[in-house]
Amino acid sequence: MPTPDIARLRARATQHHTPCGDGSIVWHVWGPASALPPLLLLHGGSGSWTHWLRNIDALVDAGRQVWVPDLPGFGDSALPTGGSDADALPVPLEAGLQQLLGTCAVDVVGFSFGGMVGGFIAEAYPARVARLVLVGAPALGMVERNTVRLKAWRHLPDPAAQALRHQHNLAALMLQDPQAIDAETLALHTANVLRDRIPGRRLSYTDVLSRALQQVRCPVWAIYGRQDALYLGQLDALAAALQAAPTFQSLQLLDQAGHWVQYEQAAAFNTALLAVLA
């Protein structure tokens, strides 16, 4: 993996494998078990566990045992069977949780695509999820396919040309401040998108998460970047869409943060998340 922080966290993690498709889901675990529920972090599309790189230490230091899988079809995990979008992931993830944690309820924090997955898990397996926190999640009936225009890169033979496209896409979608795209951030993102094997995800452009939240029984919170490219000029509508969920608690908007809010404003995000989890 590309950065010293990633290498350090990988060295500290315990790794587990559970069946998925023709291979396995790779789970990374930090911290000892405690009286608090395990904390399950679900990364975004074209990502891996490294989407949470700047959050794991603070959560473990606060006494949480942190579980972060590479979602099926991303990172080091195998493709799921039965589909190629967020709705294909709850079954193998729940089977893995059953194998690793039995019937133990977990607190779930889902970023972007992972927010959809977390919502689907909470809907399908209500006893599994004690609390759900959505971070920059789409599929609330507001994000259209061309909301953010990304540049294609897979057809380019030159890695340097690809890197320019990755940098553009980070600035367009993920981060509010282009100056935040340093060499390590670019390397992390590049390593993740190279291992994305679930292209053309369509559910993000629907209202499937809104509909799932109507059935979710656990309390639901949300933390979004105020400058999230998916919701520019639509923050009031975002709040209304979330508040329509029967168990929704609150939305917190973090300043000077784009879509990848937990990375760009890690300290503020960690404080906000720990307050919700308390």
What would you say this structure looks like, in words?
This protein has 278 residues and is α/β, with parallel strands linked by helices. It has a single domain (4-277), classed as Alpha/Beta hydrolase fold, catalytic domain (Rossmann fold, 3-Layer(aba) Sandwich), CATH 3.40.50. Helices cover 35% and strands 18% of the residues. The protein has ten helices and eight strands. Strand 3 (39-42), helix 2 (56-61) and strand 4 form a beta-alpha-beta unit. It starts with a helix and ends with a helix. Residues 39-270 form the AB hydrolase-1 domain. InterPro entries: AB_hydrolase_1, AB_hydrolase_fold, AB_hydrolase_sf, Epox_hydrolase-like. This is Pimeloyl-ACP methyl ester carboxylesterase.
Task: Write a brief caption for the model.
The chain has helices spanning 4-12, 56-61, 90-101, 113-124, 159-174, 183-193, 208-213, 235-243, 261-264, 266-277, and strands at 14-20, 23-30, 39-42, 66-70, 106-111, 129-135, 220-225, 248-254. The chain is of the alpha/beta class and 278 residues long. It is globular and about 50 Å long.
What integer value in Å does the Rg equal? 17 Å
CATH class: Alpha Beta
Low-confidence stretches: none
Q: Helicity range of the residues?
A: 25-40%
CATH hierarchy: architecture? 3-Layer(aba) Sandwich
CATH superfamily: Alpha/Beta hydrolase fold, catalytic domain
Arrangement of strands in the largest sheet: 1-2-4-3-5-6-7-8
Shape: globular
Tell me the β content: 15-25%
Q: If helices are DSSP runs of H or I spanning 4 or more residues, what is the number of helices?
A: 10
Give a quick account of the main beta sheet: strands, pairing sense, barrel closure. Answer: 8 strands, mixed
Q: Give the CATH topology.
A: Rossmann fold
Name the helix and strand elements from N-terminus to C-terminus, one letter apiece.
HEEEHEHEHEHHHEHEHH
Q: Supply the helix-strand structural class.
A: alpha/beta
Domain AB hydrolase-1: 39-270
Protein name: Pimeloyl-ACP methyl ester carboxylesterase
Organism: Rhodoferax ferrireducens
